[in-house]
Design goal:
The protein is an alpha/beta fold. The chain has a domain of 153 residues: Thiolase/Chalcone synthase (Peroxisomal Thiolase, Chain A, domain 1, 3-Layer(aba) Sandwich). It is built from 15 helices and nine strands. A nine-stranded mixed β-sheet has the order 3-2-4-5-1-6-9-8-7, sandwiched between helices. A hairpin with a 4-residue loop joins strand 8 and strand 9. Helix 4 packs across helix 15 and helix 8 crosses helix 12. The protein is globular, with a radius of gyration of 20 Å. The structure holds acetoacetyl-coenzyme A (CAA). The site of acetoacetyl-coenzyme A (CAA) has 25 residues, from helix 5 and helix 7.
Length: 418
């Protein structure tokens, strides 16, 4: 029997970037007077907020993990284990390390934390952070392309990942007769949920179905690759965001040390982790690697897809959310759009998905995302989500974090103990 693992606390910073009212750029009234938060500031804020929420003494931390993809490129900073050890005096000399798996870096940091607890640690700090707004979206597109098979896939487009998912969008829509408006429903939900979430990058940007269903000057088909361009608009894309997330994981003994009651925590029932070859692309109409991670996660947790009552899934692009919904067993292949048309995945639906806006609405600071997803499940189960709180007090939750084009997948199942 492996040891039980619990989330004792979790916190996210605001995710900001272009389009967020507080983001400093040349037309912002504070331009020249104030700077956007640094990686160090974001990480410190998230760790302190997670600790403050339960009055945690950080000297109790046995190990620390930090998920991050490419801080070396965006902010000229590597060696992030030492950055984590530097955010609070109590963390100095703790064993901390950075974990990297592209956009699944945060999910991998979390499962490292789970493994450490199962191996005997009692309190583990799991964090994720990314700062990306130091560069234009076009330069960022090149940096993020390092999560693809760079030599083979970089020539697709300056915006390599958007192009890879435009390719999936084309394949998926053609295979199942899914319309642009069907896909637009996912964007509308993402923005509608983000509008209710004060920490979301897109808190102030509205998105109507008409706008999400056809390209316009405000929502262009922006790819340079002429064949793929018609299949992707800006509204289909996750945001280039800065942000950090942190959570404190604990064993039963750890909860006691922290002074957190079992019924105020959320149990991590199990996870599945699968990785597929960077060098080969399979069927573009399905996330086979995520489906494999999901099978492992359901088996480890003793849970079925129909038991899940709230989910955070990796919508790096709108079509990815539909492919996730199918890979996780919530819909048949090609059948996800019906869940959007029928409101099943809305905040007040039977299976709320990405209640805070997901990567499209909440934002996607890539190394933070996997941790943010777990924090969001925790917050929903603890009733902390304010205007986007699901009304049904969910007992079983799921998160699915993905690196690259379905190459690294971490699916995790959670149970509320309230
Ligand atoms: N008409 C035509 N073209 C236009 C236009 C208009 N009205 N407005 C903009 N464009 C074009 C321009 O060519 C512009 O580029 P340049 O300014 O360099 O010429 C381009 O679109 C982008 O415009 P902006 O830079 O103004 O766009 P933005 O800053 O608003 O960014 C975005 C929009 C490009 C979609 C950006 O949000 C983005 O890149 N999102 C995706 C981020 C991403 O890929 N994240 C990783 C996800 S993949 C994953 O999660 C897995 C993993 O492991 C990586």
């Amino acid at each position: 029997m492996s040891r039980r693992v619990f989330i004792a606390s979790g916190a996210n910073t605001t995710f900001i970037g272009k389009g967020h009212p507080d983001f400093i750029w040349k037309k912002h009234p504070d331009f020249g007077k104030r700077e956007n938060p640094t990686l160090r500031e974001l990480l410190t804020e998230a760790v302190n907020a997670a600790a403050a929420a339960i009055n945690a003494d950080l000297s109790l931390v046995d190990r620390g993990y930090i998920g991050n993809f490419v801080a070396e490129l965006f902010v000229n900073q590597g060696h992030l284990g030492a950055a984590l050890a530097g955010v609070h005096p109590a963390l100095a000399h703790k064993p901390t390390m950075r974990v990297e798996g592209a956009c699944a870096s945060g999910g991998l940091a979390m499962i490292c934390g789970v493994d450490a607890l199962r191996a005997g640690s009692d309190v583990v700090l799991v964090t994720g952070v990314e700062v990306q707004t130091t560069q234009s979206a076009r330069v960022g597109g090149d940096y993020l392309a390092r999560a693809a098979d760079y030599e083979r896939q970089r020539p697709l487009d300056d915006f390599t990942f958007p192009a890879l998912f435009a390719r999936r969008m084309r394949a998926y829509r053609e295979a199942y007769g899914v319309s642009e408006a069907d896909i637009g429903l996912a964007a509308v939900k993402a923005y509608k949920n983000a509008n209710k979430n004060p920490k979301a990058h897109m808190v102030a940007r509205q998105m109507s179905l008409a706008e999400a269903s056809a390209a316009s000057d405000f929502n262009p088909n922006f790819l340079g690759n002429a064949e793929l361009a018609p299949y992707l608009k800006v509204s289909d894309c996750s945001q280039v965001s800065d942000g950090a997330s942190a959570m404190i994981l604990a064993s039963e003994e750890g909860l006691k040390k922290l002074g957190v009651r079992l019924e105020d925590s959320v149990e991590i029932l199990g996870f599945g982790h699968s990785t597929d070859s960077l060098y080969v692309d399979g069927d573009l109409t399905v996330f086979n690697n995520t489906a494999d991670a999901a099978r492992k996660a359901y088996a480890a947790a003793g849970v079925r897809p129909e038991d899940v009552q709230v989910a955070e899934v990796h919508d790096c692009f709108t079509v990815a959310e539909l492919l996730m919904v199918e890979a996780l067993g919530f819909a048949e292949r090609g059948g996800a759009a019906a869940l959007y048309r029928d409101g099943v995945v809305d905040i007040d639906g039977r299976l709320p998905v990405n209640t805070g806006g997901g990567l499209v609405g909440f934002g996607h600071p890539v190394g933070a995302t996997g941790v943010k997803q777990a924090v969001e499940i925790f917050r929903q189960m603890r009733g902390q989500c304010g205007a986007y709180q699901v009304p049904s007090a969910p007992r079983i939750g799921l998160s699915a974090n993905m690196g690259g084009d379905d190459k690294t997948s971490v699916v995790t199942l959670y149970k509320s103990l309230a």
